[in-house]
Design brief:
The chain is an alpha/beta fold. Helices cover 33% and strands 26% of the residues. It is built from eleven helices and 16 strands.
C-alpha cells in the first residue's frame, strides 16, 4: 500500500505513457537523506547505487518540511553523488513521515472492489481524526487467518494530510525528480525486513532512529498497527553529554564505542546510567502498545494468532551494543537485529558496498528500492 499522488498527476505508477521506468528509493527524514537503487537479475535484487547525505537541522522538523529550497538542493546533491552506477532515471519512490500518517485496520462485509472503494471512504470517516477533504486516503485488503469469518474482510486504511504530501511532491519537482509513489516508512521497513515465509504469529518491527522510534506490528502478512514513539537514539547522546558534561560529538563517540556494555571499574557505568532512563521509558512504551494490541485482538482491530513471536530492530540506533539483550530483559520477548539485505542477492558487488555499521540506517531506503525494482506490492 502507498500514498500515491494520483490527484497531482492524474495517473498511477507505471501506467503513464505505457512505460515502466526504472525507479529508485529516497528515504527522507529530519536529519538525513538516503538514496538506493536496486536492479533485478536472475539471482535476485542487486545494489546498483546508493548515497547518504546529512541534512542541516531545521530543514525538516518532525516530518514537516520547513525549507523547500534547501531540501530540493540536498536531493539534487544526494542523487548526483551516488556511489556505484550513476542514476539514469528521475523517477523515485519516496518515504513519507510515519509520525504524520494515520493507519487503521477495519472490518467490512465482503464486497466487490467497486463497492469497496465507495464503502471505505464512508467508513474511514469514523476513524480518521481529520476532515476527509484535507487528507489523501489509500487502502488495501489484507490477509485474514483461516479461522476468521469468511463473510467479512480486513482492510488497512492509511491517510496522510494533503499539506504534507503536497510539500514533499513540490520539493522533488524542484529537484527535477518525479515521485511516482509516496509510501509511509512502515511499509518500506516491513518490505525490507520481513521474510517471504512470514507466518501468522505477530512480529514487532522497531525502527530506532536519531529522531524518533517507529513501532510496527506485522501479522498474517500485513501491517496491523503502527505508531511513532517520541524517544530516539539522539536523546541517548544528549543524556550522555549532559551527565558527563562533555560535547555532543564526544558523547556520540562514547555511545557508539561502549554502548550498554559495562565493565567493573571503568567509566562505562556512567554512560549506561545516563542512557538507562531513556531506554527504560522506551521499553515501557513498547509494553503499552503490546498491551493495547493484545487487548484488541478481535477482528475489529487486528488479526492475531498467539503472542508476539519476536521483536526485530532496525534504524541506526539499533547498532547500540547490547540493546537487544536490554530490551529482552525488560520485555521478556525475543529481540533480534534485523537484516535489511535478506531480499538482496549475496554476491560480490552486491550488499558489501554499504558498510555493515550503516546497513540498519538504510533499511527504509532499501525497502523503497525493492518496491521500485519490481518487488510485489504485497509481501
Amino acid at each position: 500500500m502507498e500514498i500515491c499522488p494520483g490527484e497531482l498527476y492524474n495517473t498511477v505508477m507505471f501506467k503513464f505513457l505505457n512505460l515502466q521506468p526504472e525507479i529508485f528509493g529516497v528515504d527522507v527524514n529530519d536529519l538525513s537523506l538516503r538514496v538506493v537503487k536496486l536492479v533485478k537479475s536472475r539471482k535476485g535484487f542487486k545494489l546498483a547505487s546508493y548515497n547518504e547525505l546529512a541534512l542541516r537541522a531545521g530543514i525538516i522538523n518532525e516530518g514537516v518540511i520547513q525549507d523547500q529550497d534547501a531540501l530540493a538542493n540536498a536531493l539534487k546533491k544526494a542523487c548526483s553523488g551516488v556511489k556505484g552506477k550513476k542514476l539514469e532515471t528521475k523517477h523515485a519512490i519516496v518515504s513519507l513521515p510515519e509520525e504524520k500518517s494515520f493507519s487503521q485496520v477495519i472490518s467490512l462485509p465482503r464486497m466487490s472492489q467497486k463497492e469497496l472503494k465507495l464503502a471505505v471512504g464512508f467508513e474511514a470517516e469514523n476513524y480518521i481524526p481529520l476532515p476527509m477533504e484535507k487528507v489523501y486516503l489509500d487502502f488495501q485488503t489484507i490477509g485474514s487467518l483461516p479461522k476468521e469469518d469468511a463473510k467479512h474482510m480486513d482492510v488497512l486504511i492509511n491517510v496522510m494530510p494533503k499539506t504534507i504530501v503536497d510539500s514533499y511532491v513540490a520539493c522533488f519537482k524542484k529537484a527535477g525528480l518525479k515521485p511516482c509513489i509516496m509510501e509511509v516508512e512502515s511499509q518500506a521497513i516491513v518490505r525490507a525486513l520481513a521474510p517471504e515465509d512470514s507466518g501468522n504469529h505477530p512480529v514487532i518491527f522497531i525502527d530506532f532512529s536519531q529522531t524518533k522510534t517507529s513501532f510496527i506490528i506485522f501479522s498474517a502478512n500485513s501491517i496491523r498497527f503502527t505508531c511513532s514513539i517520541p524517544i530516539s537514539s539522539g536523546q541517548l547522546t544528549d543524556a550522555i553529554a549532559k551527565n558527563l558534561q562533555i560535547s555532543r560529538a564526544k558523547a556520540e563517540e562514547l555511545k557508539i564505542k561502549h554502548g550498554l556494555v559495562t565493565r567493573k571499574g571503568d567509566k562505562n557505568h556512567a554512560i549506561v546510567a545516563a542512557m538507562d532512563p531513556i531506554l527504560s521509558a522506551l521499553a515501557e512504551q513498547i509494553k503499552k502498545y503490546i498491551s493495547f494490541y493484545q487487548g484488541h485482538t478481535s477482528r475489529e482491530y487486528f488479526a492475531s494468532e498467539g503472542n508476539i513471536e519476536k521483536i526485530v530492530l532496525c534504524g541506526g540506533g539499533a547498532n547500540l551494543q547490547e540493546l537487544p539483550d536490554f530490551l529482552h530483559k525488560k520485555l521478556r520477548i525475543p529481540v533480534e537485529i534485523g537484516n535489511p539485505f535478506i531480499h538482496i542477492a549475496k554476491e560480490a558487488g552486491g550488499q558489501q558496498k554499504i558498510a555493515p555499521h550503516k546497513a540498519l540506517s538504510f533499511t527504509t531506503a532499501l525497502g523503497l528500492a525493492l518496491r521500485g525494482a519490481g518487488q510485489s506490492e504485497e509481501l
